[in-house]
Amino acid sequence: YWDDQKFVNVSLKSGRNIQAWIDYDHIQDQINTTMALTGMPKPQKPLISRKNLNLSSVMQDQVYVGFSSATGNFVAEDYILSWSFTTNGTAPNLDVSDLPSLMWKKKPVYKTRAFIAGIKLLSLLLPLVAALVLLKRYQDREVIEEWELEFWPDRFSYRELRIATKGFAEWEVLGSGGFGQVYRGILPGTEQVIAVNCVNKEVREVMNEFIVEIKSMGRLQHQNLVQLRGWC
């Protein structure tokens, strides 16, 4: 709207109450549309003005007065809070002191559709994520063999033995046994020297013999024998 020769931009979707004046001068065949925020005096300069508009050619002596609005492709709600009309002279002023305000309060974040949709999506994803985590743990679990239950020295992790043998370095190789290479190592945290016998993949078929040897070594104790500390 125009305010003292200065144009002021007002957003219709702001929800603020806006007052409009529509004046038609049948002598000059001119129609003016003036707008301002409710409660402000009528601006001197109209927002829209059109001359040479003879309404008598399109209007009968008796007509109905009403309102219509359009927002193009957008969806909106328009309200007429108060109005006055006269066919001769200036229309009566409106009492705008008791008009309701249509500025809607913003909903809290937890009440918005996006938040609710996010919660629903999260509630669907959480069981799936939990199932994947449990499946991963199940796949990564240590499988306990039957012979381990019968005879149970300490069990070491692959990481512990890798650190002890400096990554199974070639210079730590002590020799080769019947089931694979034997590495010298230092047990982490104890500084105790150990020998690590790595079973070759090629001798998997003789695993039963290897298990028998482990059981025997676990029960034997002699100063000239290496005591079995455990396995991985």
Strand order of the largest sheet: 3-4-5
Termini, distance in Å? Answer: 83 Å
Proportion of beta-strand residues: 15-25%
> What is the overall number of helices?
4
Shape: rod-shaped
Describe this structure in words.
This protein is an alpha+beta fold and 232 residues long. It has two domains: 126 residues, no CATH class; 86 residues, 2-Layer Sandwich (Phosphorylase Kinase, domain 1), CATH 3.30.200. Helix content is 23%, strand content 19%. The chain contains four helices and ten strands, in the order βββββααβαβββαβ. The strands form four sheets. Strands 3-4-5 form a three-stranded antiparallel β-sheet, with no helix packed on it. A three-stranded antiparallel β-sheet has the order 7-8-9, covered by helices on one side. Strands 1-2 form a two-stranded antiparallel sheet. The chain starts with a strand and ends with a strand.
What keyword list fits this structure?
232 residues; alpha+beta; 2 domains; three-stranded antiparallel beta sheet
Strand and helix layout:
Blueprint: E1 2-3, E2 6-7, E3 18-25, E4 30-37, E5 48-50, H1 113-140, H2 146-150, E6 154-155, H3 158-164, E7 173-176, E8 181-187, E9 192-197, H4 207-219, E10 230-231
Parallel strand pairs: 6-10
Antiparallel strand pairs: 1-2, 3-4, 4-5, 7-8, 8-9
